[in-house]
Amino acid sequence: MKIEDIKNIYDKLQEYDDKEICINGWVKSVRASKDFGFIDFTDGTCFKSAQIVFSKLDNFEQIAKLNAGSTIICKGKVKLTPQNKQPFEIVASDISVFCATDSEYPLQKKRHSVEFLREIAYLRPRANLFQAVFRIRSVAAMAIHEYFQGKGYLYVNTPLITTTDCEGSDQMFKVTTLNFNNLLKDKDGNVDMKQDLFGKQAYITGSGQLHGEAFALAFNKIYTFGPTFRTENSNTKTHANEFWMIEPEIAFCDLDGLMDIEEDMLKFIVKYVLEKCKQELEFLNTFVSNGLLDKLNKLLSSNFTRIDHKDVIDILKKADVKWEFEPVYGGDIAKEHEKYITEYFNGPVFVKNWPKDIKAYYMKLNEDGQTVAAVDLEVPGAGELMGGSQREENYDKILKRCKEMNVDTKAIDWYLNLRKFGSCIHSGFGMGFERLVMYLTGVENIRDVIPFPRTPQNCLY
Amino acid sequence: MKIEDIKNIYDKLQEYDDKEICINGWVKSVRASKDFGFIDFTDGTCFKSAQIVFSKLDNFEQIAKLNAGSTIICKGKVKLTPQNKQPFEIVASDISVFCATDSEYPLQKKRHSVEFLREIAYLRPRANLFQAVFRIRSVAAMAIHEYFQGKGYLYVNTPLITTTDCEGSDQMFKVTTLNFNNLLKDKDGNVDMKQDLFGKQAYITGSGQLHGEAFALAFNKIYTFGPTFRTENSNTKTHANEFWMIEPEIAFCDLDGLMDIEEDMLKFIVKYVLEKCKQELEFLNTFVSNGLLDKLNKLLSSNFTRIDHKDVIDILKKADVKWEFEPVYGGDIAKEHEKYITEYFNGPVFVKNWPKDIKAYYMKLNEDGQTVAAVDLEVPGAGELMGGSQREENYDKILKRCKEMNVDTKAIDWYLNLRKFGSCIHSGFGMGFERLVMYLTGVENIRDVIPFPRTPQNCLY
Lengths: 461, 461
Fold this sequence. Notes:
2 copies of one chain form a homodimer. By secondary structure, chain A is an alpha+beta fold. Helix content of chain A is 31%, strand content 24%. The first copy, chain A, has helices at 6-11, 13-16, 60-64, 114-119, 128-150, 209-219, 255-276, 278-287, 292-301, 309-318, 335-344, 395-404, 413-417, 433-441, and strands at residues 20-32, 37-42, 50-54, 71-80, 88-99, 154-155, 161-162, 173-176, 202-204, 221-229, 242-251, 305-308, 349-355, 371-379, 383-390, 426-432. In chain A, a hairpin with a 7-residue loop joins strand 2 (37-42) and strand 3. The two termini of chain A are 36 Å apart.
């Protein structure tokens, strides 16, 4: 007998009325009296569970005592129950137990702490919180692909293993096939990297931007969507050593055009998730982040403010606030400033034209000679969500910036050559996917939006 | 003035008739007589180029001498030319040069060898071959996401950095933050891995399967789509050290169900690419792989044969062929055998129920005690495209297999626990994305379907 998905029953209720079906899945809980019982049942196909009603079964006693997490195969009939909270129930004619769990099963029917659930990352996807979060993560990923593919962007898989990187190798993990306990030395007494598989020291990447630019200069509009890595030894709620990034790069696009794209993309994603993840968002709005739905709906109709970095500093300096970090014209913007400025403008804020000394060598130097055409998008409740810039397209100017900033030009000569071989105005940005998922779900710890998070001293599973 | 995409003009010819436009892009070639010239022009938005016609321009001499790869900004009027090969041309009123290349530019207007183009991987996406291949790669990626999301699969980002892996750590790259020239030793004289960022030896993964199974047992149907790594020191046309994999895992699905999914998915992808990449496929069919279009169209109507491994060996043994590798009942199937068997059945072939001794510990042992419920899909012209199996869902049986095969059960105790905590029949497969792209494009070397390929001794860019 064909196995039905619970999701299909929810989607096509009328078709299933009075229909004999077979479902396979897991017990969330059982309530039973002497000769009558209910199973809260999930098969994982949708966020909502289904109710199985059972009575005169040969194995009634066994079923009545089933523990959470047990696997069952249930035959029965769908009965629509429009007067109840759940729109249907399944009246069981036969239930067989495929795998019964016992008290050893770590996920009992009670509210577990997120800290405890992190320790059982291989089971926590079964908990409601993670059922909601990881569904939204998956839907948001699809929204991103649909957005860019729909607009003619090419999806590029930039390399993970690399010998050039835009973030600097001190932030990068080394990859190697060498045996640490048997390293050969070269004639200078250093480890002989020629023995390694690639014949030199290789890293796993912190960004696909440089490679993405090469493709934008061939395909016009491209995006990457893949894992990136940082070695940061910091244990905060917003840092992980492995995370996914989306890095679009657009030829013939300046800073204003870039902000248009960032705003349009974010609204598209939020709208998409609001439409496709109603149940998940309602759950999160109730149990995790009050006001989440309001926040997301409000974003759709927000005007994103565009303001220069120096004007932001003006506002911060004038503010009647005792700052932990004093705002500085030549300096970065702290978390407290991000919060203030999104509240001040009551919506998302593009902070643009940053002091050149705190930004990367590849950002386009503005005519003032002091600022670069960089932009960070700050959103209410999440702070910085995207960071981008117009790229310096002039060969001599980027070379000058490299020298000023002690960038090793030899390692990136191919990248610099792009400024000689058909250079053009172009811009791009990066969005941390986990940051986005945190924003969409209201979940505050990055460890809870990654299937198996990697943080310092933590690489379980 | 708004910049138009060439793609839009091709898509909406009538709308553009006689319209004044501005386009930005690159010169592919220029042909000019004394007062009249043609530019073969691309802006990267579509595979086809456009023709710009120019005459009385102030800078006529400059334009007439432009080298391939130069960036221009062109204003002009669209003229439909239904009688010509190309459906329209752009009659230029103004052309300005943004970046002129010279003879130093490596991509001149002639046919370059793929070997040469590999050496300039940052420029080769501009060559026709790679314009076709990387567009198809991008469209095929979208086809995969649409297929699985449309059927309710959850997209899971399994970890790249891991301490457990299903392929065995001898095939895996180590990742580390340690300084090779200053390694601290523990009391046994070995390198003290506690000093590393994760406090132990970590690797980059060769498969997301184990983690994917944990998610399938919570979300029913899941798929991964991300990079994987192998340290194999082999320089063949089909091996790379970094490649992308798709690994679906489906709860309550047996081996027959798995083959249904593999066949359905492959037909979906091929149909999708045939519809969306007509120009690219025609180019490849003409210049790279004669018969490519026939091969793909034929697949859509093929019946995929399903046959046991031992019956394949029977056929091979009976064949009137002098094999380089003699077919053996307990052994693997060589490339020459794959080729023969797809020709024998004149279409794709599922080879199933393999000898247990040459397959992995997690595959379900069949009742005969000798074979496992594994399946490889062999396709004409590409050999093995997918490999999958029903997973052993019985705790005692998988433990027994681990012991027989000397698998370290401690490192995968969480994975084995899935067989105690709500175990169910489940199956999954892996498809190498590059293998698929090679099949779809007819390109024979894996280095030419990866933006920046990584192979032994080769990690440029």
